[in-house]
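Support request from a user on the community tier.

User writes: "When I paste my structure tokens into the form, the page sometimes reloads and wipes my input. The last time it worked, I copied everything first. Here is what I submitted, just in case something in the input itself triggers the reload:"
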């Protein structure tokens, strides 16, 4: 599957598939009898897919011109990663803040908070491989692999530790993993309602977790054949001055949506979301888990609601309106609080 994902993550893969079908159909049309009649199907399908794939390549070209990377592209083991770093280095003795949005989203998902912070501290947005402007990198995509890639991207971009890693949801799992493996480069970890592995192994929403991988796969197939709306938002970035850095005229989600038409985004998601299924996690759990005491005395801040009614509503949506839903909601809350045990220096922020 890794070889397949490597191929499909190329935006031109749809065109190659379409042309291959068209060639197969043309060869068949030169035959006679039933073969000739049946060959009309791959020939027509090849034409349609090739046209759709060509439209995708045109839109990708428009997106790349309209949305140039606001930061710098740095080489990491033969592929490029995007790093947007702004703000004074070592401001007020603080560490450099590195942001990881939830899911497998590009760093630009935290653009608003980054822009608020950069006036007083060094703030960095990193596009995980396959997201934002970063190349896909090698498959499979795993949290353990992306730990090393993110650190290499920061180093190659000229950023210096110590770092404050801030991660939301699945991004929190990445932040905690970096701190576990590179404590000497970590000054603090901020977990914004981070995803604990217990939810994946023992939680009730296994079908929902599996659907992440499936939906990204079909989104990727649609993208390489241009099966998505044509409309694109207007330019997102303008260069202000060296003191203000880059400014954006669009919300972060609009920017992510625009550059997310690249097929690499979907198929990198397919690969790493395998880690969010019970089956996939069996092989990766030991490399990904951050257990009690694993961060020593590194400052850890767990930021999440206290009594959150949306948790019970979500639980009811998964198991139905019955006593089991309350048990599932209590489980979700309790597993999140386990992050307080990963360090002897943890603070709960409500």
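"...and here is what came back when it finally went through:"
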């Amino acid at each position: 599957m890794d070889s397949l994902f490597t191929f499909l993550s190329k935006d031109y893969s749809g065109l190659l598939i379409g042309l291959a079908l068209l060639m197969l159909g043309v060869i068949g049309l030169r035959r006679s009898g039933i073969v000739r009649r049946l060959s009309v199907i791959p020939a027509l399908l090849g034409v349609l897919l090739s046209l759709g794939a060509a439209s995708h390549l045109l839109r990708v070209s428009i997106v790349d011109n309209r949305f140039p990377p606001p930061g710098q592209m740095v080489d990491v083991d033969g592929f490029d990663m995007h790093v947007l770093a702004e703000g004074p280095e070592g401001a007020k003795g603080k560490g450099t803040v590195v942001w990881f949005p939830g899911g497998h989203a590009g760093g630009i998902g935290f653009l608003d908070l980054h822009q608020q912070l950069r006036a007083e501290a060094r703030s960095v947005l990193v596009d995980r491989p396959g997201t934002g402007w970063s190349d896909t990198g090698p498959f499979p995509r795993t949290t353990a692999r992306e730990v090393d890639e993110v650190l290499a991207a920061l180093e190659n971009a000229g950023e210096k530790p110590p770092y404050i890693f801030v991660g939301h949801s699945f991004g929190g799992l990445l932040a905690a993993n970096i701190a576990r493996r590179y404590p000497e480069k970590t000054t603090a970890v901020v977990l914004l309602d981070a995803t604990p592995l217990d939810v994946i192994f023992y939680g009730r929403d296994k079908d929902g977790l599996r659907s992440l991988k499936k939906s990204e796969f079909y989104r990727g197939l649609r993208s390489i054949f241009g099966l998505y709306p044509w409309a694109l938002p207007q330019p997102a970035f303008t260069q202000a001055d060296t003191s203000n850095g880059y400014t954006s005229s669009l919300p972060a989600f609009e920017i992510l949506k625009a550059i997310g038409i690249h097929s690499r985004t979907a198929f990198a998601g397919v690969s790493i979301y395998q880690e969010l299924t019970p089956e996939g996690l069996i092989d990766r759990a030991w490399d990904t888990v951050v257990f009690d005491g694993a961060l020593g005395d590194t400052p850890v801040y767990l930021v999440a609601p206290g009594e959150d009614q949306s948790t019970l509503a979500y639980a009811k949506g998964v198991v139905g309106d019955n006593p089991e839903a309350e048990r599932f909601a209590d489980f979700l809350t309790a597993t999140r609080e386990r992050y307080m045990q990963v360090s002897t220096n943890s603070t709960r922020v409500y």
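Agent notes: The reload is a front-end session timeout and is unrelated to the input. The mean pLDDT is 92. The beta strands are 72-76, 79-86, 96-100, 123-126, 163-168, 186-192, 237-239, 246-248, 300-303, 346-349. Escalated to web team.
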